[in-house]
Design brief:
mainly alpha, about 70% helix, 19 helices, two-stranded antiparallel ribbon
Length: about 400
């Protein structure tokens, strides 16, 4: 009879026991510990190009209390990073921010809209509707949403940020781009941290003084708020309804897809994302914070610059927490002085990280065609994300049944 050495028999027995345990009592893998090394510090700055302009714009347009906005934003980052133990970002709600900035809507409407979107997302999560969407919407459609968002972010970076300071801005952006490309291949020197240092050096050399920073110091706590039913109703109609399609497509479905791509060994469900999304927005309005979400672009940005655990998100949140509690008085001035071309380069690399995710479906000509169409719909059509999600799902189903042929 064929016999294995004792050591191999023991290993084989252990494998059988592990297999039996995994079948009878499936368990999710243990969450890794948080790290705060130089790579996590670099990853902490990977989402700054998206968040800062939106936060500053809402503070100015809606006359929000900067201490409340910054402190609550930082607190949500810390809680999220500690809970997920992966670079799960917290971002301002983009559609809401754009509407508030463009129409100069009051703070009460913003807080009402934030509470309304929290209630909506909680209802979708608890009823299981969000899980049904995750099953119905195919991967090429999610990839197309990521393509649309990546192109949108790249457009903002190149159109609004990089060229904001004229020739000096283009020069600074070129230097920042070269520095990032060089340091992305050298793990010892975090690229994003070096890019932020370059921006601060430029600001102190030409626009900012130590007195500007010192004069802004002073401890301030967030201001508590009440939200009335009329504000919730107005916020629902004006802000929550336009925001919901983008949240479903990017904040939930696309974020789950990016997490699956980058951390396949750590399963993440849309129910988990929906719950933390809703809980944040059920708390933010009463603390004076801006409405927030998760986002595939933010996760890609943290990851692209080195973030591998929730440490990068905790570090990022800690920076905002200190800014809100100690330096909120001069935050607006400092941010307006900080060179936008540097934020543009950060945003550009975040968009590239999103666009590169489409590589996995490139060999599938039908899937790639659907992703490209969805990306174009998201970029150019009104309510483009929801239009792309619905149209892309229908096109993908029609192609699978042979009614449409994209392979020619």
């Amino acid at each position: 009879m064929l016999r294995f050495p004792a050591s191999r028999r023991i290993r084989y027995s252990r494998r059988l026991m592990l297999r039996h345990d995994s079948i009878s009592a499936p368990r999710s893998p243990a969450k890794p510990r948080l790290r705060f090394d130089r790579h996590e510090w670099s990853g902490a700055f990977g989402d700054m190009g998206t968040d800062l302009p939106l936060l500053v714009g809402m503070i100015l347009a809606a006359r929000l209390d900067s201490a409340s906005v910054l402190t609550v934003f930082g607190l949500m980052q810390i809680l999220t990073g500690a809970w997920y133990r992966m670079p799960m970002p917290v971002q301002p709600l983009k559609a809401m921010a754009a509407l508030v900035i463009a129409q100069k809507l009051p703070a009460a409407t913003l807080h009402g809209g934030g509470l309304a979107i929290g209630i909506l997302m909680l209802a979708l999560t608890l009823t299981g509707a969000i899980g049904w969407l995750a099953r119905v919407v195919p991967t090429p459609v999610v990839r197309g949403i990521q393509v649309g968002l990546g192109l949108q972010l790249a457009s903002i970076a190149l159109r609004d940020y990089v060229r904001s300071d004229g020739i000096a801005g283009w020069t600074l952006a070129a230097a920042g781009f070269a520095l990032t490309v060089i340091l992305m291949r050298h793990r010892r020197f975090p690229a994003a941290a070096a890019l932020i240092a370059l921006g601060l050096a430029y600001a102190f050399a030409f626009k900012l003084t130590a007195n500007d920073v010192a004069s802004s110091a002073g401890f301030r706590l967030p201001q508590l708020h009440t939200v009335s039913w009329p504000d919730i109703w107005t916020g629902f109609l004006v802000l929550a309804l336009p925001q919901l399609p983008l949240s479903l497509a990017n904040s939930v479905l696309a974020t789950r897809q990016v997490a699956q791509d980058l951390f396949p060994e750590r399963p993440l469900t849309v129910r988990q994302i929906g719950l933390t999304y809703s809980l944040m927005n059920l708390a933010n309005p009463f603390l004076g914070g801006a409405p927030t979400c998760h986002g595939s672009g933010g996760m890609a940005g943290h990851y692209a610059f080195g973030g591998r655990t929730g440490g990068s998100v905790v570090i990022y949140g800690g920076i905002f927490l200190v800014l809100g509690l100690v330096f909120s008085g001069g935050f607006q001035k400092v941010i307006e002085i900080f060179p936008l071309p540097v934020l543009g380069i950060l945003l550009l690399f975040e968009s590239l990280a999103l666009l590169l995710l489409v590589r996995d479906i490139a060999p599938d000509r039908t899937g790639f065609a659907v992703a490209a169409l969805v990306g174009l719909f998201a970029l150019f059509l009104p309510y483009g994300y929801v239009t792309g999600m619905i149209a892309g799902t229908l096109l993908h189903a029609a192609a699978r049944r042979g009614w449409i042929d994209f392979s020619r």
